[in-house]
Every structure is written in C-alpha cells, then in structure tokens.
Design goal:
heterodimer; A: about 120 residues; mainly beta; 7-stranded mixed beta sheet; 4-stranded antiparallel beta sheet; 11 strands; about 0% helix; B: about 110 residues; 6-stranded mixed beta sheet; 12 strands; globular
Amino acid sequence: GAVVSQHPSWVICKSGTSVKIECRSLDFQATTMFWYRQFPKQSLMLMATSNEGSKATYEQGVEKDKFLINHASLTLSTLTVTSAHPEDSSFYICSAGLGGRLYEQYFGPGTRLTVT
Amino acid sequence: GDSVTQMEGPVTLSEEAFLTINCTYTATGYPSLFWYVQYPGEGLQLLLKATKADDKGSNKGFEATYRKETTSFHLEKGSVQVSDSAVYFCASERGGKLIFGQGTELSVKP
C-alpha cells in the first residue's frame, strides 16, 4: 500500500513552453503533498508544501509564479513549470503525507525534466 | 541553518561485506534523524529512524545510532546483499521539514 505515482517519468520540452507534472496517491488520500527538486549528485530540496483545497506554501527562493502547484483533490497534485528555461532542467520528486508525522511521506519515483 | 552531510559515493562492495555510510548533521537542538533508501526506478522509502539521542533505528539488517556527541547517524549493515544496491539518503527533520543529504549510491557485486 501507500503508492505514489508521477507522470510523466521523463519529459523534454523547448525553452519557453510550460510543462505539467502529475503526482497521484494511488491507494490512500493525502492531505498534504510535497514537491522537491534534485540536482545531480545533490540532495532533495523542498520546493513547496500543498494541502488539499488551499494554496501551496513555497520555500524561500522558489518562484511561485514559475512553479505553479495545484492540489485539487486528496489524490492529485500537479506542478506546472511555466515558461521553462534550461536552468529548470532537473529531477522533480513529489511525496504524499498520510498523517501528522512528517517523516511518514510516501515518495513518487520522480520526473526528469530536460529543457532544450 | 540545518544541514546534513553524507559520504560521497558511489560505494562498491562485494556481497557479504560490511557497510558503513557516514552521515553528520548540523542543527540547533536535537532533530529527528532518518535514513531513506531509493531502489532503481522507485521512490524514496523510509528505512529507519531515531527521534532522540542514543536511539538506535534498525530495519532489514540496517542499523544507525543517533550520536549527539559527534552529531552523527551512520548507517551500518553487517553483511550486504546484491539486493541492497540502491541510493541511501540521510535526513533530519526540523520545523516540519525534511532536510536531506546528497545521497550515497551503493553497488553490491556478487
């Protein structure tokens, strides 16, 4: 149980276009979802925390107008990278929380974004 | 701010060898500490945790002890298997947020 999926697993887009990444909790309802970004050989950096039905809380330094997060239901959160540029190329990982203990997050397999 | 530092990989071991992956943290106070594992093509999974000093977390033959004197949480396993090949992440929790190390890739050869 507690499976989180991401789609797509890999995407290439042209500079200036927008890309949407989906994160789904398959067999449970997630009140909180998290979005992380990972550069090669570096740690996961939390980008934002979203709660179903409310606006996401972004970490310092993350552009909320560039990285649009929508958590419309208890099983789906989306991250849209708007007007993507090559520096946005990265590995994006989502996770879903089951309860009040933060470490009980279930992670998706990640999405590799390459902007050309 | 808080941070977590892991030993760099990749680490390559033969089956049944002893494993140590070093992890140190910086924090004000005493955060909870975790090890996560990511198998190829899968998401991160919680491997073990320790919530206070001197606690030992253990799971699947892996162990780590929360040492406040050395601000460390090293991961150990007495005899690794090929199936343990994965990327291992050390993390701390502070203010409701997880702070990850950069990950250490482990490759176990038969």
